[in-house]
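Example 3.
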Amino acid sequence: MLAGKTSFLFIILLLLCLPLELNAKSKGSNKTYYIAVGDSFAYCVFDRDDVPPRCYAYTDALYERLKENNPNLEFRKKHFAKGGVTTTSIITGQLLNATKFMKSHSGLIKFVTINIGRNDFVGCSPKHSNVSECLHTKLERITYNLNNTIIPMLKEAGGEGAQYAATTYFDTIPYHDLLADRLIDIYTKNGFKVVDLRQIITNDTICNYTYWCKHHNGHPNVIGSRIIADVLFSKLSSPVVTHFPDSNFIASPAVTHFPDSNL
Ligand SMILES: *[C@@H]1O[C@H](CO)[C@@H](O)[C@H](O)[C@H]1NC(C)=O
Ligand SMILES: *[C@@H]1O[C@H](CO)[C@@H](O)[C@H](O)[C@H]1NC(C)=O
Ligand SMILES: *[C@@H]1O[C@H](CO)[C@@H](O)[C@H](O)[C@H]1NC(C)=O
Ligand SMILES: *[C@@H]1O[C@H](CO)[C@@H](O)[C@H](O)[C@H]1NC(C)=O
Ligand SMILES: *[C@@H]1O[C@H](CO)[C@@H](O)[C@H](O)[C@H]1NC(C)=O
Ligand SMILES: *[C@@H]1O[C@H](CO)[C@@H](O)[C@H](O)[C@H]1NC(C)=O
């Protein structure tokens, strides 16, 4: 027990002393990274009817697209994204983990996406004595946490070589539009590319693109995830896309749903 603990501490100390060497090591290989931070929209959800079960998010779909043109790109979301996290809980949890990883792989981080904010509203249930006041307070908290803590931490850790992006949510709560508008404003002012899911998940596409009609669940399904990823992909600059303008991209059936994918 003690021996285990001691060697654990020893490893921790070693790790603390090694960031420079790790850096040097990772620079020797040609791996680069896509980091997904956030809640279940970033991590993934299961379709219980899928056999075998598969946990899938737009981040997985985006990685598939990016990987085509960036064969050495690795994807990391485990321990960096988790269902249920809020703009407060993520700071000392998943965000800290992610920024540590990013700093120890400095120069190799190419893409960073984030989804956060929706879960902050969970406490404002209809039983709350003043729901609109509660939502308003939370919105200000989300704004502050994102603008003053989360985004600065991400950009400091990821550096200038990374492209940063985010999406809004699909949701049915009354405050949804205010949240979406606020998220777009903050992200855009901080140089993030943003996909507004309200332009993808509409009354016409909700059953095809989310689990809403099937499970009364607002997460994007596999098809929806791929559409979101395609729109986001079109906003990023991916090295090979500039070499082969249009080829992959126009050919993708998903994109033909959104010929003017300037969403
Ligand atoms: C870089 O990646 C290519 C393709 O994956 C691989 O063949 C090559 O060995 C890698 N180079 C280094 C230095 O790791
Ligand atoms: C941070 O990462 C470690 C593994 O590196 C993991 O054990 C821990 O649960 C992670 N923390 C969070 C909040 O995800
Ligand atoms: C809820 O809070 C808002 C803002 O503080 C206030 O204007 C409103 O009157 C309150 N509503 C109720 C029902 O207390
Ligand atoms: C975001 O932070 C910047 C500086 O860190 C500040 O100038 C700006 O007013 C903030 N925006 C919001 C919406 O809080
Ligand atoms: C979408 O559906 C909702 C609920 O059925 C309805 O209130 C809303 O007006 C519809 N929006 C459009 C643009 O048709
Ligand atoms: C939704 O899916 C159905 C069945 O696959 C298809 O017929 C329909 O065109 C799709 N609608 C949209 C808006 O993609």
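Residues 203 surround 2-acetamido-2-deoxy-beta-D-glucopyranose (ligand 5) (CB under 6 Å). The mean pLDDT is 83.
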